[in-house]
Amino acid sequence: MSPILTQNEEENSSTEIGLVRVPNLHVHTMAEDVLYHLGLGTLTHDLPAMFGDVKFVCVGGSASRMREFVGILCTKLALSETVQDPIINLCGNNDRYSMYKAGPVLAASHGMGVPSMSILLHELIKLLHHARCRDVTVIRIGTSGGLGLEPGTVVVSRSAVDARFQPQMEQMVLGKSVVRSTELHAGLAAELVACGRAVGGFQTVLGNTMCTHDFYEGQARLDGAVCTYSHEEKLVYLRAAHEAGVCNIEMESSVFSVLCRLSGLQAGVVCVTLLDRLAGDQVSSPHDVLAEFARRPQHLVVELIRTRLSGLEKQRRDCAAPGHAAP
Ligand SMILES: O=P(O)(O)O[C@H]1O[C@H](CO)[C@@H](O)[C@H]1O
Ligand SMILES: O=c1cc[nH]c(=O)[nH]1
């Protein structure tokens, strides 16, 4: 008989505080877990030795963005002694995703769309669990289309919402509809907004992010190969989204929120807007402008990691100081 996960068991599947939860009893009875798309496994790799110190996981669509992010991180945080040179892709024998590590930070590409993000996250969450990582924060660093915002504005997501502007995601499981919450961690979102303002040089706003299953019709574009609605109908829909609190549109935040929530991970989404969708559909700014926009969420997240790590270092020093009494 298949094990059934009760709510109690789900809560107890990670009884040690801070450990990453895998709410799937089957995984806990497997002799080996092959993380196929990452090219890693529990019997072939010493996951605690390779990843046990990870505190931050940052994910974004493309491999080159995540490699660039690790480069910026190493420079700004002087992490060069804890990273291999050249920076090594840890998904060595599988080219579906790319993954890089610098000190306590793991950066991975997730490709485009919910299915691709979902596969990466299932395996990444199990990786963190098998590696016995504690107190991990996960952040998506992405691009998006904005609504009524100047291009280049960075949006920190309060919640992912679906195409009806609801903070939920529907997933078909065994042919039945399962609806799950897509709310993100409010405290982390506030910290991310503060980091954006501290970095400066661009606007950072807090708002809802609509996650769609398509870049063209799904995002009410007029420039796809197929389109069945008018310019006016497009604007009615996008204005309704805007009025419902949607600041930007992208394609992965819903499943990202759901899987991180179910695993007890603090999760945040930080996406720059490449264009204002109320003004047009084509992403036509010059390459160097788009590349600079795409770096903005990276700088913001580096600032969050810098702040958090210096807080941890201060705590460690305070605890080691003579006369410090254990709590
Ligand atoms: O910039 P990234 O993170 O790749 O994400 C956004 O860009 C892609 C579409 O161009 C979608 O995957 C969307 O979510
Ligand atoms: O309009 C846009 C731009 C980037 N990514 C999206 O999903 N939509």
TrEMBL record:
Phosphate binds at residues 96, 140-143. Pathway: Pyrimidine metabolism; UMP biosynthesis via salvage pathway; uracil from uridine (phosphorylase route): step 1/1. It catalyses: uridine + phosphate = alpha-D-ribose 1-phosphate + uracil. GO terms for molecular function: uridine phosphorylase activity. Its EC number is 2.4.2.3. It is an enzyme of class 2 (transferase). GO terms for biological process: nucleotide catabolic process; uridine catabolic process. The keyword Plastid does not apply. Residues 93-306 form the Nucleoside phosphorylase domain. Substrate binds at residues 219, 221. Keywords: Glycosyltransferase, Transferase. The keyword Repressor does not apply. GO terms for cellular component: cytosol. CDD domains: UP_hUPP-like. Belongs to the PNP/UDP phosphorylase family. Catalyzes the reversible phosphorylytic cleavage of uridine to uracil and ribose-1-phosphate which can then be utilized as carbon and energy sources or in the rescue of pyrimidine bases for nucleotide synthesis. Shows broad substrate specificity and can also accept deoxyuridine and other analogous compounds. This is Uridine phosphorylase. It comes from Petromyzon marinus.
